[in-house]
Structures are given as C-alpha cells and as structure tokens.
Amino acid sequence: AIRYLSKRRQERVRLIGDTLCQEGFDLVLLQEVWSEQDYSDLKVKLASCYPFSHYFRSGVIGSGLCVFSRFPILDTLLYQYSLNGYPYMLQHGDWFCGKSVGLPGSRAGVTAPLLSLSLQLHAEYCRDKDAYLPHRLVQAWELAQFIRHTSKAADVVLLGGDLNMHPEDVGIRLLRGWTGLRDAFAEATHFEGCKNGCTLVPDNCFTDKSELLPFPLGIRIDYILYKAISSFTVKCEELKTTTGPAPGMAIPFSDHEAVMATLHIQRQGQPAGATLGTADPALADVVTEARTEVGVGLRAAQQQRYSSGRMAVLALLLLLLQAAAALGTLAGLGTEQPFPKLSFCLLAFLALGVLVLATGLHLFHTMEVKMLHSTEDQMWMVLRALQERP
Amino acid sequence: AIRYLSKRRQERVRLIGDTLCQEGFDLVLLQEVWSEQDYSDLKVKLASCYPFSHYFRSGVIGSGLCVFSRFPILDTLLYQYSLNGYPYMLQHGDWFCGKSVGLPGSRAGVTAPLLSLSLQLHAEYCRDKDAYLPHRLVQAWELAQFIRHTSKAADVVLLGGDLNMHPEDVGIRLLRGWTGLRDAFAEATHFEGCKNGCTLVPDNCFTDKSELLPFPLGIRIDYILYKAISSFTVKCEELKTTTGPAPGMAIPFSDHEAVMATLHIQRQGQPAGATLGTADPALADVVTEARTEVGVGLRAAQQQRYSSGRMAVLALLLLLLQAAAALGTLAGLGTEQPFPKLSFCLLAFLALGVLVLATGLHLFHTMEVKMLHSTEDQMWMVLRALQERP
C-alpha cells in the first residue's frame, strides 16, 4: 500500500479493516503498510476488536510492519537488518524501507508470553541472476540469531511475514534449521486455499504475470512459522489462504494472498527441555551452503568497493591536475588561456560530482563488505561448534 | 587507536597485550580498537592466555569492539544503534564507526551462561550545548531494550564500556533503572584507583585538558555494570582503575583509564525470581525526563528535515527555471544569448549540487525523525505500563 502509487489503496485498506473486524483473529501481522495514515485509520476502525496495536517505524519510508492484537502488547523491539539492498537502486525501493523485524511481546490468556515476529526480507527481483541473495541470506541469518537470542524466555515463538523466498531456498532452510521453527503449512492438519499454499499467484490482478511465468501455480513466499520453547506444545490445526477477490468484491485484498493459521497451544506437564539446540545433521550442510553464497556476495562487494575507490582516486587526480593547470595560468606561466573556460569548468564540476558519488559508494560498499564478512565469520563459528558436537 | 592518527599507537597496543597476558583476567572487553590489524596482533599475542576472542565489525570503520576470553564464546550478536550522529559531522567521526553493542555469550566454568556486553555510546563533544544528547538517549534506550530482551536466559549479565555519560546523567539512570543493572563502582567492597573512580582524568597525557576544566578530578565515563538473572548472586569484591602511566613506562595505556572488577558469582538455593521487573517508583520520572529530551531532539530533527526539504525544492525550482530559460533560448524565443554561458553553467551545477546534498540530508533527517519518534512512542508505552502497575 504505497500512497499515490498502489492501485485502489484506500478501498483495499477499508476492505482489510472490515474483514479483520468480522473474522476476529487473536493476532494480526501486517506488512507493507507504508503509509502511517493507513495504520492510523485501521487502528481507529479496529479499536473495539483489536484494542492493542503497534506500528514499527524505520528507514526513510518506514518498515511497513504493524501488529494488531486482542491481547496486551507488553513490549516491542525493532531490529533493522544491517544489509538491505543498495540506496542507488531507486527502482528497487528496499533500502529506503529499512526492512526490519518487529518483536511485539504479548501475553495471550493468562500465562503464555508469546513472542511474535512480523517481518519482511529483501525482495527477489530476478531469480536467475539474484544479486540480492547474499543480502537476503545475511537477513535470514540475522533474523535467526535475533530469534535465538530473544526467544529464550518466551513460551511460544510465532513468526509471520513475507520472507521473499521459495520454501526450498537456502535462506528458509537456514532459518528453520538454525532456530527450530516449524512451517505451519507443512504441519497443518487441515489446509484450505490456493494450491500448494501459494501466496503469490498469477490469478491475482495486482501481481506481475511475467515474473510468475516459470511458476504457473504461483509461489509460496508468505509464511507462518512457530515453535514452543518451554513447557508448551503448539500444533497447527488449520491453515488457510485467501483465494483471489475478497468476498462479494471484484478485487483481492492485496497482491499477496493472506495466510491464516489456527494454532492449538497447550501447556505440557514437564518442560520440554532445550528445543533450541537443533541436532539436525543436515544443518551443517545448510550453513555451509549459505556461507558459500555469502562469500560470493562478499567478493562482489569487495570488487565494487575497489572499483568505486579507484574511480574516486581518478576523479581526485583529475581535480588536482585541473587545479594545478588553473594555478599555473593564474601565476602567468602560460601567457594565454590554454583551455576554453566553459569546458574547463564543466570538467571540474563533473570530476567533483564523480568524486562525491564514488566516495559515497566506496563508503557504502565498505560497510557492505564488513557486514558480509562478519556474517561469514559468525557462520564459520557456528560450523565449528556444530562439528565439535558429537 | 586510530591508524596513522593516534599517538604511539603500536607501542600502546603492545603494552596492553603484555599487561593482559601478565594479569590473566577471565574476560577482557576492549573499545576503540579501530584497526583490525591491531586486533589480529593482539589475538596472536594473547592466544595462550585468552584462547577465545571476537571482533565486531560494523559501520564504515568498524565498531572498535573486541572481546578476549578465557572461556569459550558460544555465540555473538551485534546490535547497531539506529541513530548515531550525523554523517556530515566529519570531525565527530561517530557516524562512521557504526557504534553498536556486541553480545558474546560465553560459558564461564561449567554452568553459568554469561552474557557480556561490550559497547560504546555516542561521544559528548560539548556538555553545555549537547546536540547529541537525544541520540545518546535513543542509544541508551535501545541498549536497555536489547538487554531486557536478550538477557532472559542468561545467569549473569555483564556490561562494560565507555558510556560517554556522567554517573548522574539521565541516560545512565534510564539504563540502570530500566534494566536493573548495578554499578560496580557503587557496589564495590574495596576500591583502588583514581579518585571517584574517574576514568577520563586531566593527568593523562592523551586527554584534552580544556574539556576537563570544569571537572578538575576528571569524569567517570567508563563503567562495569552487572546483574544476576536466575538463581545466581553477583557481588563486586574489588574495583580498580589504572592510574596514569603503565608500570615502568612513560605513557599510559590509553586516553581513558582501564576499569578492572573482581566479581564473586555464586549459585543460590532457589531462583531469585524475576529481577527484571524493577519496581523503582523513580523509574517513571527518569523515563519521563528522557522522553522530554528525546522530544526536544525530535523537534530539532523535524526542523532540519523541513529546512533541507525546502532547500531541495528551491534548488529544483532554480534548475527548472534554468532549463526553461535554456529551452527558450534554443527555441529562438530570445534572439540573443541573455546570460553569459559560463555563469549560467556554474549556476546550474551549483543548483544540482545543492539539490543532491539537500535531498540526501532530507532523507537522513527523515530517518532520524522516525527513530526519535519511535523511541518516544516506546517510552510512552512503558510509562503507561508503569502507571498501571500498582
């Protein structure tokens, strides 16, 4: 829902509000609510059925994440991924949104502190030549680390959002393997909705048909993941997706189908023990695979850092050369003006512009290299620990 | 320790390495190790006495944070503060460092998972007119939230670093009040070192004397804070600071005095209960005070966002006007060249430069406004919760 750009935005926001009111969920996690005004409108409309809500602000535009809940939200925390695309890729607006994970801790019923995460990872713009894969893997890794570190005192962890990854992608396997989260679609006793649980389907009038050509059924990129931490068990009884147009309307709610899960949360007799330590032997392979991809991204970023640094140095040299020439002329070394003044000035401005841009790019790619390097290191640390474990 | 800039850097790094080897601490948290080469040198030197270490990479330059430990480091997580000064304040390099809090979880002895945090907050450059106070408060708040969310499964939380705040400052009171962390200096049974525990003292040959004129004894800005979470108790038996030159040398280790604490960690019979809920009635006042300061920063940021936006619009208008004039001339509306070509071009480049810079500033201040606003909101949520509690 981008203001002025998204089609039939207000109508759809109104429709979403009406449906949420009718359905009466316990917890609603929304993504891509880019306009804070839309959030405020929803908040007013939903005040009676969802008295508690929170909007996560971040980046230039906002995170687009918001939460509506029947139960009190005790606390919130926003973690912004350290890498999120490139500011100069204006047509892929991800950098400006400050993609993040929002953590509202809420207390459902009397006893269970629930940790729910609403999130969105970097979009995939071209599957064959996916330049953002390393960034998305860093995000998946940071997300997994964030969950591991924050979930320890919760009873149930619930994650919902647009992960922008196919179910078998390395990022999903990494996230699930390293946190032990289970996929509601795979675990659901009963399923109803689009085939294969797809949420980005060609039938939807807001999706880009050409993108979905290789996937005639659509793609499943929106997930509900969950796990129980302490003395609780969670079971997914039913999973549903919306299928096309909203009931009685000509348009769907959004370009993605919504995912709805009915979870059965039950207190067990004794604590289930440390469920965080995932002893999956395949985990090491997944981490290795992810680390390789991050390494590829690291080398590309190093290359870009080098190129932009070289460009900055060249621009600086040109400027110095021009300054020397100008000084020479002023000092009367050359009696005549050797260059036409106008082109001399234009060249100087051009060099200055290139210098500023290239320096900015160099700084940006330096940060990118640092974060990719750091993720590679962390993954290596985990691999070593996994191998040492019997 | 900034490469090429800091005085007698390599000598001091060598000295620090030697002393750490001799003293044989359990855990060492270092700040402002800006050069990764220095970290690598230290790592090699300390391999026998501190087999485990980690360097936290972030920002353009790095976080400067590193950890050396006698016990295995199980996991690490880096949280970058969402606000950290301004990229255009080149002389105050904070923005480029990506100030952050590093969390190495380690296991000391057999049972106690220890959460130690190494960190540095934004520097205070002018106490009377402290433009960075709102940023530092946002950092203190984010730090407190980060500790609350990550510490729940730890037995002991240990925080060490340069907080860049005086002991009675609102940021420190906020951090301590909201997390329940205790100040090792206040709790220590035995103290030895600079008077009042000061770590930035005028006697140190690397400090800026003029900055310390209002504080003849110095300032205490480096802290060791701690708390026990579960069935443990922590007591600070001894606190020491270094006092001036390293033993047998003419120079001190650094511009700040080092802080060393001997902590006695003991397992209790029964769990101490939820020590996170701090029922301090003064807490609401501290949060209110901090929220007021954040509000002041918010209004300043909004003003700057508005000014830069207006500047960008003006530059754009000038460019459009020039384009119209140029097109008019080309179309032959004016038969003669009305402006000298050179100044016309210069003006256009100037306008373009201003447009780019002002747009960048506008985006940056938009992010700043979002983060300050979000912190203000979170503080309000906490205040409401505090007031509802009996």
UniProtKB/TrEMBL annotation, chains A, B:
Subcellular compartments: Membrane
Keyword Transmembrane helix part of the UniProt annotation: yes
Q: One MF term in GO for this entry? A: sphingomyelin phosphodiesterase activity
Annotated Endonuclease/exonuclease/phosphatase domain residues: 22-256
Q: Which top EC class is named for this enzyme in its record? A: hydrolase
Keywords of the record, alphabetical order, are: Hydrolase, Lipid metabolism, Magnesium, Membrane, Metal-binding, Sphingolipid metabolism, Transmembrane, Transmembrane helix
GO terms under biological process: sphingolipid metabolic process
**What pathway does the UniProt record associate with this protein?**
Sphingolipid metabolism; Lipid metabolism; sphingolipid metabolism
User: What are the boundaries of the signal sequence?
Assistant: none
**Annotated SUPFAM superfamilies:** DNase I-like
Q: How does it sit in the membrane?
A: Multi-pass membrane protein
* Gene Ontology CC annotation, any one: membrane
The organism sits in which domain of life? Eukaryota
InterPro entries cross-referenced by the UniProt entry: Endo/exonu/phosph_ase_sf, Endo/exonuclease/phosphatase, Sph/SMPD2-like
Reply yes or no: does the keyword rRNA processing apply.
no
Which chain regions cross the lipid bilayer? 312-333, 339-364
Q: Give the Enzyme Commission number.
A: 3.1.4.12
Q: Which family does it belong to?
A: Belongs to the neutral sphingomyelinase family.
Instruction: State the name under which the record lists this protein.
Output: sphingomyelin phosphodiesterase
